[in-house]
Amino acid sequence: xxxxxxxxxxxxxxxxxxxxxxxxxxxxxxxxxxxxxxxxxxxxxxxxxxxxxxxxxxxxxxxxxxxxxxxxxxxxxxxxxxxxxxxxxxxxxxxxxxxxxxxxxxxxxxxxxxxxxxxxxxxxxxxxxxxxxxxxxxxxxxxxxxxxxxxxxxxxxxxxxxxxxxxxxxxxxxxxxxxxxxxxxxxxxxxxxxxxxxxxxxxxxxxxxxxxxxxxxxxxxxxxxxxxxxxxxxxxxxxxxxxxxxxxxxxxxxxxxxxxxxxxxxxxxxxxxxxxxxxxxxxxxxxxxxxxxxxxxxxxxxxxxxxxxxxxxxxxxxxxxxxxxxxxxxxxxxxxxxxxxxxxxxxxxxxxxxxxxxxxxxxxxxxxxxxxxxxxxxxxxxxxxxxxxxxxxxxxxxxxxxxxxxxxxxxxxxxxxxxxxxxxxxxxxxxxxxxxxxxxxxxxxxxxxxxxxxxxxxxxxxxxxxxxxxxxxxxxxxxxxxxxxxxxxxxxxxxxxxxxxxxx
Length: 504
Ligand code: BES
Ligand code: MN
Ligand code: ZN
Hints:
Number of helices: 14
Distance between the termini: 32 Å
Bound molecules: ligand BES, manganese (II) ion, zinc ion
Helix content: 25-40%
Number of strands: 20
Radius of gyration: 25 Å
Low-confidence stretches: none
Largest sheet: 8 strands, mixed
Strand content: 15-25%
Shape: elongated
């Protein structure tokens, strides 16, 4: 897909379809309550086409409600269709309205033969920020074009749409240009995360993830990679990580991907991803229904690789170190059993009460490993708890952490990037739920607040630096049904968070 900017007269735009906003204006003349209004660009086109737009709006009763859109065939020299996109009342237009409008636009262009699209929304209210529009539009439309058909004998037909032109004013042009670069890097990152998530567990193993990290490092400027195998993890005394990986014949890997775009001695920001390439539950075996979806238990790792893919493209002036803790959680004769006690690399002993709470076991050793980098911040990303879906459903990721400014930065980044998250408290009151009668701590917190007690577990290993944890169990993939598949979240949030760090 090609994305370009256009600041010339809209009438001269060569495109199969021009998208124009339509508003409700309650304040217009009193006898025409709720009149539908075109923006100034729309009015220019209307005049040039013998009022065909205003006539159509009236005779077809075209709605300007947010979430509605209407396609018109027009007889103009340089374009053949106009898509009128509802934005509702100008005063009420906010990011949710923008999302609805882009969703409606997206639905209308689906399954058409439109090859090039011109989005002429430069007149939308300032509150919607034209640049946000660009990112949201590119991400949504590209999301619609994503296909995962590498295992199908018959491939999905290629979409005819190959070009999106954004019509902007001269002063919007520089920032719009930057947003296009950001959005296309973000799309690459999201698609990388989706592909890795959707790959089956027999292909996407810990070794496969290591190969992908290696490839990214080989192909990108300022990257290097280190891959630690089980023997090396043994010498680092990572007993918690190994207690998970030992139950599978697929060898576990700790993958460290470094990006150096900042000053030599500048403390890095770190991302740590849970990369369980299949979570059977281990000896605490999961029930069979939907167990296939536990191939998605590496979506934290996928979001890290996706974000790093976008970083490779954007080359921000930052130092970033990513760690992926990757293993398969399987039941075997030598797998860990409930009641087993293991020692993590930090020295903290852990009673494994449930082998299905494996994510925190691989993560805790990775989080201790992070300490040597003296990081400015560490964010871990994990499909950690089913309880997170009970608490927040599938729209919102959970954030917890030991540093409120860091948590707030993540919440803000999520809002900015339309990839929302919400904070859950990890107050000390919850910590006693992971007390063990026989070891320092146990790996489950008993009844209630499952996402919080999982974070409490991680918090025992992250005292040396500002740390936050994203539980993406509900947001990383769409479960079951025809839309089943990885979402690529929270790549937008993570990318925005890191780019905000560069700007500050
Ligand atoms: N990967 C799962 C969490 C999960 C489950 C994510 C379903 C998305 C959908 C994790 O390893 C797990 O099994 N957690 C257990 C923890 C429990 C044993 C304390 C859970 O959530 O049931
Ligand atoms: Mn599990
Ligand atoms: Zn898991």
